[in-house]
Amino acid sequence: MKLKVPVEITINGKSCSGEVEPRQLLVHFIRENAGLTGTKVGCDTSQCGTCTVVLDGSTAKACTVLTVQASGSSVTTIEGFADGANLHPLQEAFWNNHALQCGFCTPGMIIAADAILRNNPSPTREEIRQGLEGNICRCTGYQNIVRAVEQAAETMGGG
Amino acid sequence: MTTRVFSSGIRRREDPRLITGRASYTDDIKLPGMVYAAILRSMYAHANIRSIDTSAAAGQPGVIAVYTGADTEGALNGLPCAWLIPNSDLKTPAHPAIAKDRVRYVGDAVAVVVAETRYQAEDALEHIVVEYEPLDAVLNPKDAAQDGAPQLHDDAPNNVAFTWAVAGGDADAAFADADVTVSDVITLPRLIANPMEPRSAIAQWVGATGELTLWNTSQNPHIARFLTCVVTGVPEHKIRVIAPEVGGGFGSKIPYYPDEAITAFCSMRLGVPVKWTETRSENYLATTQGRDHIEEVEMAATSDGKITGLRTTVYAGLGAYLSTAAPGVPTILHGLMYSGAYDIPNISGTIYGVFNNGTPVDAYRGAGRPEATTLIERLVDVLAAELGMDPVEVRRKNLIPKFENGHDVVTGLTYDSGDYGATLDTVLDAAGYSALREEQEQARGEGRLMGVGVSTYVEICGLGPSQVAGAVGFQGGLWESAIVRFHPTGKVNVMVGSSPHGQGEETTFAQIVAEEVGVGVDDVEIIHGDTDLTPMGWGTYGSRTTAVSGAAVTLATRKIKDKSKALAAHLLEAATEDIEYEDGRFFVRGSPDQHKTIQDIALMANVAWDMPEGMEPGLEASAFYDPPNFTYPFGAHLAVVEVDPATGQIDLQRYIAVDDCGVQINPMIVEGQVHGGVAQGVGPVLWEGVVYDESGQPLTGTMLDYALPRADGLPDIEVQSNTTPSPHHPLGVKGVGEAGTIASTPTVYNAVMDALRPLGITRIDMPLTPEKVWRAMQDARNGG
Ligand code: FES
Ligand code: FES
After folding, report:
1. pLDDT above 90 covers what percent of chain B?
2. B337 with B414, same domain?
3. Number of domains chain B is built from
4. Does residue B603 sit in the same domain as residue B645?
5. Mean pLDDT of chain B
6. Looking at beta carbons, which residues of chain A come within 8 Å of B116?
7. Which of A1, A106, A144 sits opposite B672 (nearest CB)?
8. How many C-beta neighbours within 10 Å does residue B467 have?
9. CATH of the domain at B79
10. Nearest CA in chain A to B24
11. Domain parsing of chain A, residue ranges
12. For chain A, percent of residues with pLDDT exceeding 90
């Protein structure tokens, strides 16, 4: 039996605790222990960005963080983005602009886009493309994602 | 009044669950008592297995079972190939789910561990001891077909799985008589489809009932059920395959894989649900790849640019085993398309399907057609250069003139409808072609390497008439079916056999029903992806779902409309012939006030209090649609690039796509398909390609080494479209899923070669990485 360590992480405002192996990846804690499967695993080399979450206010690829490192932290996943029935402006913009097809990259994309807009409320198209460089989408060719981020920037007051 | 939604870009009905993280993909599903499988894969490209010792692995924490190929003896049949192309001397060597005494590619399954957690299963893999006797490997498909190459299968001499020929007219005579001939060798690299969702399977065997349920990342759950039956021996009516949310496929989720068979085997042995999910690196080894062509091609023409002949010899790598649809891709979907958008009177091609020590190759977006379009469109540019003509002029000279109802090409196909000149004109206008050429002239004067590339294309889509499927050896039908069911409240469920996974048919099919009988789109729910809930269908690939399955939805809804008319006539005390329909209402001709809405009809049909003599209760209809012909979407694309003369870096500056996919049900979705398709076709020109070393080790084994298109590498794609309806389709629809991929590879390749022309460079193998381009430029500057 491998040693297990107690952890407690606040996910989307709710405290989640458990005993985990020190090597467990945060993305697996979120998916398996907390049961929040909106955060995806798209690769094993931190290349794809489908596991992107907000960790203590900045974005992180949850496959590059150990659960034990995140203990005591606060995490927001895609499930925490909408305010009840009210979609986040980025979710609304992704929907309006057909910025998703299969949807597998979408949770990570929305969170990466949110980070772009937090650092730069009115990014240029070029800046959006650079900001999304760490997230792969195989369906959309990125164009409508860029459009969606532009539109969200406008509705969120930047633009 | 309902709002018109047909041909309008309404936002997608599938999106709310996807943007909130509430969609359930296979790996998101957790069943009570579920355990986890991990598969040990060969590290050698080619080796004999001397021995496998699983005893240490079996003793690891949490391990429930370890199985090897020997354990599957008598329990799992070999994996079948389902496209047995005729007249080709096709060899179908055995393909066991778990290799028994020989491995033939890095990634071949050797053993499986089942454990309580995924981490435990993966840990235990390291404790399996396999003794291999390494053998020589061969990867290049042309080398593999030569005498003396390492042999993969005893029953396929020279590794040739098939030799298939296409011929029309007299190509040899055309070449003998030609004013001018040009030739080229084109390689299309081996590509990894890379859907963002890795493959996954959950098998749940219930011994008491003899029922097997398989959740699977499949583009075609009904085919998966069929093949699960063939491989496991469980009767088809006791198998339920569910493709839940599927995160992209691009062809790689068509095949039936060893992995789902192994997962089912484990569940049947252990009596508990078993989940297997591949890692991305495992996807790079074990999920089918695309292309891998070496094409030796030549074109004959008159001195004024009229093409008179095309000849090809193609070596198509198939990987180590025949994947489900593999033989059909470089033949039926490739060779028959050699005429492209042109009238080429004499064509002959020979295609060798060749086993090599790589991951099996199967359909990847475009499947055979990008490989055909690239060779035709490249040769047209080479011909233009040879003749000193503008490449657009050569195209214009040879394009098939506008036709509305059938045009035969010498390969034996009958294109449905086309106006190829119009899409070419539109793209040239949109680009400002002559201004671009002037700009290029000026750039060249300044020593800048600017290039313009143009390509036309025609694709064969909407697969296809089942009789033709049978004639070309496809071991299934290609029709689709739909059930449209009205509930008492006027809400509608539509069950379809096809299984979209990102293409948005939950929206477009609802738009069809809304258009036909005047209900709101939000009153229609499309059910797909579960073989117990949906009627038979052959799946989503070949740009066929909207074309074929959408036609079935249309015809079923029209039956609803006919029955509704008859019922309305009865309720309004009129003759059926006197009932007219408009916008969700059935009324007596001339008195629109006397009417019944479709909701009134649905209620009455369901309660059945007052039905005409002999009419069955209920408002439900099903339709089976077998297309009379394929559909042939087409278009013309244009790219502008600039190559950095110092570094070889390519800047893709503009990309303009003009496509004609017939009638569009949702233009926003069509445009999205073009964007994504173009990105996937640009990939292999600029970045993508699997690389193996001499021993068959993949050097592009992770996302770190295999370069996919990223957001900052692509320009905004300018999209326009024309509409030439398909004459034989109930809605005039043709399909658009693969268009972008088919057109963009030759377009961008031609643009880069155009940029490099002043240096005398005529060919570089894809992908055109800065290093390769830089080397080619160095060689050219040093006098070649
Ligand atoms: S899963 Fe790919 S970056 Fe984390
Ligand atoms: S929507 Fe499918 S990967 Fe982005």
Report:
1. 99
2. yes
3. 3
4. no
5. 97
6. none
7. A144
8. 12
9. 3.90.1170.50
10. A37
11. 5-78, 89-155
12. 94
Residue of B15, B246, B711 with shortest CB distance to A146: B711
Query: Which residues from chain A sit within 8 angstroms of residue B714, using beta carbons?
Result: 129, 141-143
Task: Summarize the confidence of residues B445-471 as an average pLDDT.
Answer: 96
Q: How many Cβ atoms sit within 10 Å of the Cβ of residue A61? A: 23
**Which ligand 1 atom lies nearest to the CA of residue A43?**
2
Are the beta carbons of A98 and B9 separated by less than 8 Å? yes
Long-range own/partner contacts, residues A128-134 (CB < 8 A, 24 or more apart): A128/B711, A129/B711, A129/B712, A129/B714, A130/B711, A130/B712, A132/B710, A132/B711, A132/B712, A133/B710, A133/B711, A133/B712, A134/A49, A134/A52, A134/A61
Taking the C-alpha atoms of residue B200 and residue B253, their distance in angstroms, rounded to an integer, is 10
pLDDT class for B1, splitting at 50, 70, 90?
very low
Contacts of A127 in chain B (CB under 8 A): none
Q: Do B236 and B122 fall within a single domain?
A: yes
pTM over 0.95: yes
Res B544: pLDDT: 94
> Per CATH, is A89-155 categorized as 3.40.640.10?
no
Ligand 2-lining residues (CB < 6 angstroms): A 100-106, 137-140; B 196, 248, 502
Question: Both B295 and B282 in a single domain?
Answer: no
Check whether residue B689 and residue B701 sit in a common domain: yes
Q: Per-residue confidence at B644, pLDDT binned at 50, 70, 90?
A: very high
Range of the domain at B512: 479-625
**CATH H-level superfamily of A5-78:** Beta-grasp domain (3.10.20.30)
Q: B675–A143: do the CB atoms touch at under 8 Å?
A: yes
Name the average pLDDT for chain A: 96
Does position A1 have pLDDT exceeding 70, yes or no?
A: no
Residue B18 lies in a domain: no
The secondary structure of chain B in percent helix, strand, coil, rounded to multiples of 5, reads 30, 25, 40
Position A2 scores a pLDDT of 66
The residue whose CB lies within 8 Å of the most ligand 2 atoms, and thus the one to mutate among B15, B19, B196, B250, is B196
